[in-house]
Fold this protein.
Amino acid sequence: MEKNPSISEALKRHFGFDTFKGNQEAIIESLLAGNDTFVIMPTGGGKSLCYQLPALMSEGTAIVISPLIALMKNQVDAMRNYSETDHVAHFLNSSLTRSAIEQVKSDIVSGQTKLLYVAPESLTKEENIEFLKTVSISFYAVDEAHCISEWGHDFRPEYRRIRPIINEIGSRPVIALTATATPKVQHDIQKNLGMSEASVFKSSFNRSNLYYEVRLKTPNIDRDIIRFIKQRRGKSGIVYCLSRKKVEELTELLLVNDIKALAYHAGMDSPTRNANQDAFLLEQVDVIVATIAFGMGIDKPDVRYVIHYDIPKSLEGYYQETGRAGRDGGEGYCLCFYARKDLQKMEKFIQAKPVNEQEIGRQLLAETAAYAEGAVCRRRALLHYFGENFTDENCGNCDNCLNTKKKVEAKEELLAALETIAAVKEKFKADHIVDVMLGRATQDVRSYRHEELEVFGSCEGSDMKFLATVVRQGMLDGYIERGVENFGILRLSDKGRDFMRHPKSFKVIEDSDFSEDEDEAPVKGGAGCAADPQLYAILCALRKNMARTLKLPPYIIFQDPSVEAMATTYPITIDELQSIPGVGAGKAHRYGEEFVKVIRTYVEDNEIERPEDLRVRSVASKSKPKVSIIQAIDRKIDLTEIAQSNGMDFDQLLDEIEAIVMSGTRINISYYINDIMDPEDQDEVFEYFKSSESDKLSQAYDELCPAFSEEEVRLMRIKFLSEVGN
């Protein structure tokens, strides 16, 4: 395209740049020509310039609708830095005093203000609507436009009111901008803003410099994160957690391990939050531990890693947050920890929402789980989610591509999936298709009489997970399409119809196995294994001999993750041993003396210099819930009541009780177990743990369920560990 000299000159004059990035120039030309314009551009692509430059070039004031007050302030400050006067840009929101608001309005009326940033809530106020009716408006910019869609990662109901208010104030061209939009979200934005005829500019979502990795979340996650960060000392990073509580706990843990870190979440007061954000930008600290409240619009180009302590609720959220890394084109390591248990907790939270939101939430979680467990190229899976086709089989920059698995033939299964989609008239989602293929007469299947179809049971006896993988990889390879209007509905593509007429070889990579018991499963790729295999073997032998003498299962003395940690951090005193995960004061004093003696001798004999950065210090436990739980159990209060009084569900309470027992504290929950289990049943489960070489819950469930419920097995495991081990 031939350069527009006036736009290029304005770019140089106002911002000092000689050239535009990507399709910025075409976007600006579209807006200046009076067209509604829709911009989908990943983080770091230069979205802001697409409305800032035309605002400076146009008569009147551009109204920029933005969801975050902190983001508005940053952008206004940035614009003022490019200008000779502070009047060029203002924001209008609830943080301003009455006199400040009057000053803003005065500057706008005098024609000095080219950009006015407003929150959607401020836009809806009657006094602001009446004022803006009197203003010469150049255009409207709707930033973070994905907030309009319930299928977006940050839905804001007030965004749905933007179009009616624009119509009331006075219709002018609209530019909508977002860093993430699936085809479904794109459709919602255009429909809701009444811009179906808009010029659409969609940049590639591929960030080739970002490395994507998903690891199984284990009890050693804190240690793994500390070691990961210490290996990158001096580099900037963000750790995202879902809860404010976890943000506070992890920040404290990083600090005691000599990592310069600060917390950031919506529960903090505004001055503290802003100060912490500025400290990160000014590199006074290396790490920000944050909820998703952090990062929107933060222009720090050299964030070198983004860690997700918890899997996000949607792939859009994940992409948005990982996009904070490597914005300068340099290294960007995106590490996500995943456990099915976390997804199950999120599903429970979803149940409290309205029915339509529950359905959306479950669909988004299912997409996230499929990404985490999938063994295909991470980049390819992400880009496909955003409607972009990445044709390379191997991107060479994600964990799956660097650890490729063998492909297995699935021609018959794909053919069966395509025939089933056709048989149900292309009106159902993946889980329904798989149920029909397996011959599962679920309530849903029966309600549509799909058990009467010829394809019903066409893959009877197959593995459900494998069929789901076939369907998903069939989508990636273009044989199956997903509906946009009705998200998740599967349809046949032309390529899929051709496959039905002329079947050919179709190979898939089986999904990664995240089914291990997350209490103890090792992290894949060696991140969770012992640093010193020789010492680990010596300690395992010591544990076995001690167990034989004491007539106890080895795991009662110390569990595998604890022994593994000893062979990594070399504790040579009882005090140091107590900092090992799963080793409390009781266990350290009861069983620890021989272990630290062996480790001390090993360290001396092998002249091992114990590196300080491998010793992970723990924060002194100040857990009020643990104390109150122990006191309540001493008073024989019903466990369900204890859970409710501590704001937990029953599974979370059992997690806490297990942690108490594992660290060596003896508690007695027999009063509760006696009410729900017969003595003979208790004896049977107790004997199982007594004779078992492992206390892994997954193995216990395989042996004991369905004769016993998972809850009963967990309770008896707690009783056994407490009575025999403590």
